[in-house]
Amino acid sequence: VSTAAPIPELRGKEHPPFYRDIRVIRWVGQLAVVAAVAALLWYLFGNVRSNLVASGLPTGFGFLDGKFGSAVPGLPDAADLTVAQTFAAGFMNTLRVILFGIPGCTILGIMIGVARLSDNYAVRAFGTLYVETFRNIPALVWIFIIHFAISVASLPPITGADNLPGTADDPTYFGLFVVSNRGIGIPWFDPGASTEVFIAGLFVALMAVWAVNVWRKQVNAATGKPTHGGRWGLATFLLVALIANFVAGNPLAVDGAGIAEGGRQIEGGMTVQVPYFSLTVALTLYTASHVAEVVRGAIQAIHKGQTEAANAVALTTFQRYRFIILPQAFRIMIPPLANQYLNITKNSSLAVAIGYIEITAVFGRIVNNASPAPQGVLILMGLYLIFSLSISFVANFFNRRLSLETR
Amino acid sequence: MGAPTETRENHPQPEEPLVPDEDQPVTTEPLGQRLKEGLFGDLKNTVLTLVFGTVLLYVAYRSYLFLFANLKPTPDGDLVNSWNVVRDNLELFVVGNQFGRTGISYSMLWAAAYLAVFAIGFAVGPVNPAKVPPMTWRTRISIMGPALGAGVVFANFTETLTPIVLMLLLPVALAIGFYLPRVLPEVVVNRRGIIAVVLAALVFALETGFDPSNVDDFGGLLLTLNVAFISIAASFPLGVILALARRSSFPLIRPIAVAYIELIRGVPLITLLFMGAFALAFFLPPGSDAPPGTIRSIIMFTLFSAAYVAEIVRGGLQSVHKGQTEAGQAIGLSPATVTARIVLPQALRNSIPPLVGQFIALLKDTSLLIIIGQFDILGVTKPMLSSLAYANQGYFPETYAFVAFLFWIICFSMSRASQRLETKLGVGTR
């Protein structure tokens, strides 16, 4: 006995109108937003174009082939370079900061981070003092303190005959180093030898190490003898490097820095510019405080049982960190560490405040020399994106290599 | 019988603190014994103690000389206290070198300061103190200590009594704001967020003398704090929108948000500030005037900060359990309502501690203003150190040390306060 009313057949005739169909609304809404963003960009682009034309500036990128215009301290041949070549020189200078800064802040950061977890009160206090001092004061203030209040204020001036070799104010140490306000001279490869050949030889040495490593692993798999990878690798590297040294005309016979005849110049070796020195030291110290916190967090995230197990098999503190704790902590550290590397790269732009000519400083100079600022900003952003993407790429590679294999 | 049949109901256990007290010593040995074993337990420890203890003592000794026995010769041959450079320029450090142009009286600034401190106390004061985990003495000291130290240093450098008295009364305003939520009716306390925003706007109106364009003549601490506060406040809505866009299911909108966030995060702040200084005028319609320098940098700071706020809020959104969304959908709420009433409030609460961290970072980043020629705390040192009285006499260490001290006080106490906030909100312990 069915009393229920028949269910009306809706399908096919009672479709909601298209303007109430959620799929239509979603796509129309999205297209509207995209159109609005595109219109805004088009409007801004049009403004830039007409403003550039109105002020007589080029609208394209042709200015890159023009002359940079003037000599710059730290970039003496800049007057002969094109704008593009100056950007390239600035790029190399940024790279120099990173090449020293990243290993420096990593090593120092790991040491401070481990110190903050020490059982010894004095060591812990030192670590805490370091971290809280460096990370709560802006990087730029550190750069100013180290450059103006320390480097410039305390490096001895070289002014002339008073500083010649043999005089009382000779700033040369051991015949190898010069410490002065015109730069810090350090021994470097003999410029007479073919350094390129030697560096190529070092690459060959690295490849030989890799090959020996593969061979030792095969020996180990076949016979069970220990690989002794470290010893074999080191011996191979030294041997090949030594051969490369003699092939290239002995560049390892280093050339020490000294004071030139006038007493105002440093000659020989390599001269490290004072702003570069200040910048790199300041950024390394500053970033190390952040790296230390990353390291401390990662170590504290390792299960306590790992430490107890290491103690149970009587490892020393060094062995515990080297073989048990740090390898596991590295896995956790990689993403935040990569972030700090990105920060030190971006912070290298602060060099502009103390006159070290890296890419941001080059940009500032070319804008003052009547190059168009909007295109300059685009190039600048593009160059920094190259750095950022490279660091992210390497970090992602290691992250994938070291991540735990889970189901 | 007794013991085995006892239940929790009959004998309630003492309530455990939500977070273990770090000050609680693990061992019960007397402090002297523990110190002795910790510092000189074995040979390795003794060597470490001697090396690092020497370093710490040397740092302390040099700091003492730098702070209390620091004399410099004048061109006339007299010896003067090096810290005179701070004492003589305290006004520059606080309000900058162009503040006179605005015609704002200092009493207005003090009123704004009192209102600001009151608003902060009102915003963070607990309604029901019993529900808040107890504060350890270490936390109390690390939050209050720096403020106290800053007060002592400022009192040392002021020449009249009025600012000292006015400064001593600031904690009173803080305390009134802090205890007010306990006595006010619930209707008011529940709208604390809106009231705090209104109070902040009022603070801004007071300090600018009801004319926002006066910001352009601000300098020193005043400029630093204003740029940081305005930028983080203005970047907040933009950041939330970007985070929601990045997490949305709209395939056309997501890439726009991703492109913006990653582009901004990929470049250094100084390039954006240069863009504001050199290139912003090019983006405006031809013939129109670019806004004044401070406004331009606030715009760039806001655009910069929005990308970072977006990533923080995205993290907050990810930390909200999916069940919350599903529960909202199950009772028939629209997607917009689920986001606005269920997901966002929880996400934003989880984002508060990292947002404070972002604010600290932004505050440190305001030091970049010196590079584009503006006069924040670091920027005012430029006219100061090139003035006739101090140029070329080696006043760099004292000046920059004071700048560093100002930044340190603000950043350190705020980072400690944010750790406390994390404890209070129970982030990560749920």
Task: Please provide a written account of the structure.
The complex is a heterodimer of chains A (407) and B (430). Helices cover 62% and strands 4% of the residues of chain A. The longest helix of chain A has 33 residues, at 22-54. Chain A is extended, with a radius of gyration of 30 Å. A four-stranded antiparallel β-sheet of chain A has the order 1-2-3-6. Chain A has helices at 22-54, 83-115, 121-135, 139-154, 195-223, 229-247, 274-301, 304-312, 317-347, 359-368, 373-402; strands spanning 172-173, 177-180, 183-186, 258-259, 266-267, 270-272. In chain A, a hairpin with a 2-residue loop joins strand 2 (177-180) and strand 3. Chain B is built from 18 helices and two strands. By secondary structure, chain B is mainly alpha-helical. In chain B, helix 11 crosses helix 14 and helix 12 packs across helix 14 (293-318). Chain B has a two-stranded antiparallel sheet. Chains A and B meet through helix 1, helix 3, helix 4, helix 10 and helix 11 of A and helix 1, helix 2, helix 12, helix 13 and helix 18 of B.
Which labels suit this protein?
heterodimer, A: 407 residues, mainly alpha, four-stranded antiparallel β-sheet, two-stranded antiparallel sheet, 11 helices, extended, B: 430 residues, 18 helices, globular
Q: What is the number of beta strands of chain B?
A: 2
Q: In angstroms, what is the radius of gyration of chain B?
A: 26 Å
How many β-strand runs of chain A?
6
Major pleated sheet of chain A: 4 strands, antiparallel
Query: Distance between termini of chain A?
Result: 57 Å
Strand content of chain A: under 5%
Q: Return the structural class of chain B.
A: mainly alpha
Number of helices of chain A: 11
Please bin the fraction of helical residues of chain B.
Answer: 55-70%
- Largest interface, Cβ cutoff 8 Å: A-B, 60 and 52 residues
Q: Can you count the helices of chain B? A: 18
